[in-house]
Amino acid sequence: MTAANLGFIGVGKMGEPMVLRLLGGGHRVTVFNRSREKLAKVCDAGACAAGSPREVAAVADIIFLCLTDASAVEAVVFGADGVAEGAGQGTLLVDCSSISPAATRAMAARWQEACGGRWVDAPVSGGVPGAQQGTLIFLAGGDPADIGRIRPFLDVMGRQATHMGPVGSGQMTKLCNQAIVACNLATIAEAVHLAAAGGVDAGRLAEALRGGFADSAPLQVYGPRMAGAATGPAMGALATMLKDMTNVLDQAHALGAPMPMTSAAAELYRIVAGRGYLDADLDNLVRLFDP
Known about the structure:
Layout: E1 5-9, H1 15-24, E2 28-32, H2 40-44, E3 48-49, H3 53-59, E4 62-65, H4 70-78, H5 83-86, E5 92-95, H6 101-115, E6 118-121, E7 124-125, H7 127-133, E8 136-141, H8 144-157, E9 158-165, H9 169-197, H10 205-209, H11 217-226, H12 238-255, H13 260-277
Parallel strand pairs: 1-2, 1-4, 2-3, 4-5, 5-6, 8-9
Antiparallel strand pairs: 7-8
């Protein structure tokens, strides 16, 4: 694969390992992050730091975004010193953030009007471990030609990329993903609590259920952490999942699609958040059962 000049904006817990994967694939990557200290590792690996999103756009034909929410995406792309101010005609923007389909479609239309640019929404599943291991799942929406253009880069960062339809389809698919994951995590917290209450070693629950119908990646990652049998750096904040669940339920309401399980799970997340764990890792869902 020929080396490419890429841009990457949003070098956080997910973005950092994604950039490292691109650099490892031999690509030149220009990066920007509001917190400059978070660029140290990728710059040591060969990335070039830019002073603004506009500077990234001035040197890159394809720009990846990995940001917290729709307002952050809008500010980076259309704000002062934003990508739109430095982008050349036809620049391809690939948004790996998790935002609403409606916001995605609106910004894609605005982007096309601003500079004739192309937009692909490609949110991911797999979390920080998937980004570190290069096993992310990309859920892509956009023009087939644009998906084909970025597929070699997605293959460097992940193990699967599925084109789900036009712009916004990737985000809609990610909402489905988050509904499943959110409900799964809430059920895992319940099961861990039940195991402990019943005198079973909850720390071995994931091991015991591995390979069966109850198994899942969230169980293997979060089950031992919820049981206190494993520790490690935070992998996903409860606040982020709550943001995604709000998007899920807003979209479901707009479509008239009932989601009773997700609605109930969201309320449980809010209870835990109200106990002071909003910015804590998702394994704190088990705190729901604290006396």
